[in-house]
Amino acid sequence: MTDRQLFDGVAADYDAYRPDYPAQLFDALESAMGQPLLWSHVCDVGAGTGISSRAIAGRGATVTAVDPGLGVLQVLRSKSTSRVLPVVGDGNALPLADGQFDLVSYAQSFHWTDPDRAVGEAFRVLKPGGVLALWWNRHDVSVPWFAQHQQRLFAACGWAGHDDEAWAAQLLAGPRWHSRVATVEIPWTRRMSVVDFGRNIMTKSYVFGMGDRAPDVVAAEVDELTREHPDGYIDEPFSTYAVMARR
User: Fold this and answer.
1) pTM of the full predicted structure?
2) What is the mean pLDDT of the chain?
3) In 3D, which of 213, 206, 246 has the Cα closest to residue 10?
């Protein structure tokens, strides 16, 4: 199994417990495209179980959902309408013809690519004037309980966290691509039970990558969160960060 297929083993829980994306994100995509998603042709790369693909298709787009993981694509296929077409592949070498798409999207997935190869492939399959959009759900660590949770979890897993995703905007605007780049940040929260939050933690690559240690680490963190949130629920704080560039 390659790094890009890691999520096959947690596909069902990934789809059930990972966050989706705020409606304002898709408004921003339409603004960047200069057209509605309705009737648009979209390539969603690193689509995983289809969280983003289904949302885009829900706006009326036809979505080609690309991922190297057969397990995640099986979940995507089972939960998606005919507007979503699953394709096995990855962003470094898209198995698609040139100039097909109004939008190429990377939802929570661009950091798994070779960035320059992926940008070149995205621009190849975009129509002239099409848009490349990369986005991530960032956690808001200004919220004290979440900052403390993350510090405990990262320490237990020996994980330092991802680089700030602003590097993606710098890449697209930089000397190789010279793209005109727009960014948006959208704050939002979701309410969920502490138990389900623990199940979500188990879908993190740096957590399940620990193997047999992972369940004990997650159980200890759920116990701590239960003490901190005696009603059994948390409000998970996010800011969705998106980077958009026109071909």
Assistant:
1) 0.94
2) 95
3) 206
* Residue of 215, 212, 208, 218 whose CA lies nearest to 9: 208
- Specify the pLDDT at position 8: 81
Residue 96 contacts residue 63 (beta carbons within 8 Å): no
The sign one gets for the Cα dihedral 140, 145, 148, 149 is negative
**The dihedral of CA 204, 206, 207, 208: what is its sign?**
positive
| C-alpha gyration radius of the chain | 18
pLDDT, average across residues 52-57: 98
Give ∠ CA 189-106-73 in degrees, rounded to 5: 95
Find out whether 181 and 246 touch, Cβ atoms under 8 Å.
Answer: no
Q: Is the pLDDT of residue 119 over 80?
A: yes
- Paired tokens of 141: 């660590």
Q: Domain spans of the chain?
A: 3-139+163-189+237-246
Stretch among 3-7, 39-43, 143-147, 238-242 having the lowest mean pLDDT: 3-7
Q: Is 3.40.50.150 the CATH number for 3-139+163-189+237-246?
A: yes
